[in-house]
Amino acid sequence: MATALSARALAAPDSTVVAEAVRGLDSDHDRATAAVYVLQAGGAVAAEQIRDAWPALSLLGQTRALRALTRLAEKHEAALQVLLVAARSDDESLREHALAALGRITPRGRAGLVTLLPDPLVGDRAAEVLASREPRFAIRPLLDAMADRGGSDRLGLRRALGIAVRLGGAEADRDLQAWLEGRPDPEVVAAAALGLRGLEAHRTLLTSLITYAAPRSTGFSTQWRLLQSAGLAGASQTVDRWVVEKLERSPEWMLRQSAVDAITARGHREEARGSLADPYPRVRARAAEALSGDPASLLLRAALARRDTWPMVRAAAVFSLRSEAAAMPVIVASVDDSMSLVRAAAIDVLADASGPDGWDRIHRRLRDPNEWPTVTAAAIEYVVAHCRTDAVDSLLRVVMRAAPSHALTEDLNNAALAIGALRALGSPESRSAIELLHRTDGVPPTLKMALEQPLAEDANCDPKRR
Q1: Is 158 strand, coil or helix?
Q2: Which of 138, 287, 349, 413 could form a disulfide with 164 if both were Cys (CB 3.0 to 4.6 A apart)?
Q3: CA distance 403 to 411
Q4: Within the chain, how many helices (H) and strands (E) appear?
């Protein structure tokens, strides 16, 4: 039957043959394959009959029909309309096949993809297909879609614009520069700038977008997006001045925090020194991190580490002091901070230090059964980092805290870390402790397993540090 259908189609596929072919889409493989060939040659009649029968076709039949529709849509509007319906299907596979088909049809298919851009279900994926297939053509429709209500908030449109600019090269840059000459809404320009972040070859374009939009921006979201992009833009005094203005005068703390990041990324972190006194703690913390190793702000950061009222600021300040030898007494003192966040940060910094500073204080933390688990974990890491073979007894105590049946998950996790530390130390005392744990009935089975797990190659202590 399939052979007969093909032969009749090659002669002259009339409406009767086309109708039979449409029904064949839901038949067995051979008949369906022959039907597709008939439909591909069926012209407007085939396009219209597939359109009319589409709702009644099975999902398999619709998928098979896409092969014919891809060819028919190059000339026939009915076929293009069916592809657009398929692109909006609830079935993900059918949607993807339909979008791919639209991407292969030029120019009608790309026009179809443009009509899909506002669709909340498939618009972002259509934008990606359009940008990948027709990068230069895609730029203006993508920008127009961003200008629609809610368009500037759509991550998919921003990503697609980045794809289009990357693939479009220097010509895409010129297209966007020309678009800027039309004085577009700064909100849309900020969204476009966000889409171009990370495109090293287009930093000049990114600078132009920010230079245009920054002095015209008023809303929070627009300014935040511009600040997120500014750190990766090219050199520009205009951009630098605007970022510093946001750093110093913006009433929203999130903008001031983003400005710290932006000015630091632009190579002017010294501008953030004043933010160490910002009224909002997250801004002070970010400024401390940004100024790590900055001699001019060392005393200010040391003061924050010891006296700021917010633990997050003290912890950030402690971490910022990690490379400054003059601040070591401040870091050591922070091991006894009233808040666990700060204590853990101080121990982490000391674990990475070259000397054994702060061990006495850290050892007390390790032995304290009431210490917070995060601090205990940091202390165990310090033991391994500095090969503290005198910590064997304390590590054993950490393991045995997990022995009771009601032990907390955090206790079990730290017990596993302590076992790893005992094995990494490799001293006679630590090996004896491992043997003791093997013989101890109260050690949970999961920890018994930890006694047998292979150590990572870099887990053993460095003999030079013993």
Answers
A1: helix
A2: 138
A3: 9
A4: 27, 0
Alpha carbons 25 and 50: distance in angstroms, whole number: 10
pLDDT per position as a tens digit, 108-147: 999 999 999 999 899 999 999 999 999 999 999 999 999 9
In the chain, the largest separation of any two C-alpha atoms, in whole Å, equals 95
Q: Cβ(263)–Cβ(269) under 8 Å?
A: yes
Among candidates 361, 323, 324, which has minimal Cα distance to 342?
361
Q: What pLDDT, on a 0 to 100 scale, did the predictor assign at position 459?
A: 58
Q: Which residue do the tokens 């614009």 mark?
A: 161
What does the angle CA 151 – CA 257 – CA 205 come to, to the nearest 5 degrees? 50
Judge contact between 371 and 344, C-beta under 8 A: no
CA–CA separation, 109 vs 130, rounded Å? Answer: 9
Concatenated DSSP letters of 290-351: HTTT-GGGHHHHHHHHHH-S-HHHHHHHHHHTTT-GGGHHHHHHGGG-SSHHHHHHHHHHHH
CA dihedral of residues 375, 376, 382, 383 (deg, nearest 10): 170
Q: 270: burial class by Cβ within 10 Å (0-12, 13-18, 19+)?
A: middle
**Burial category of 195 from C-beta neighbours within 10 Å (exposed 0-12, middle 13-18, buried 19 and up):** buried
Instruction: Provide the terminal-to-terminal Cα distance of the chain, rounded to the nearest Å.
Output: 85
d(CA 98, CA 46): 18
Q: Cα separation of 401 and 320, whole Å?
A: 33
Distance CA 42, CA 36 (A): 10
Q: What burial letters (b/e) apply to 197-210, b meaning 16+ CB within 10 Å?
A: bebeebbebbbbbb
Give residue for tokens 């596929």: 13
Cα torsion 383, 384, 387, 391 to 10°: value is: 40
Q: Which residues of the chain have pLDDT under 70?
A: 1-12, 454-460, 462-466
Q: Yes or no: say if 447 and 415 are a contact pair by the CB < 8 Å rule.
A: yes
What whole-number distance in Å separates Cα of residue 241 and Cα of residue 5?
Answer: 74
Type of residue numbered 95: R
- With beta carbons less than 8 A apart as the criterion, state whether 424 and 388 touch: no
Tokens 């127009």, located at residue:
144
* Model pLDDT for residues 314-369, shown as the tens digit of each residue: 999 999 999 999 999 999 999 999 999 999 999 999 999 988 889 999 999 999 99
For residue 391, the 8-state DSSP code is: G
Nearest CA to 276 out of 266, 265, 289, 263 is that of 289
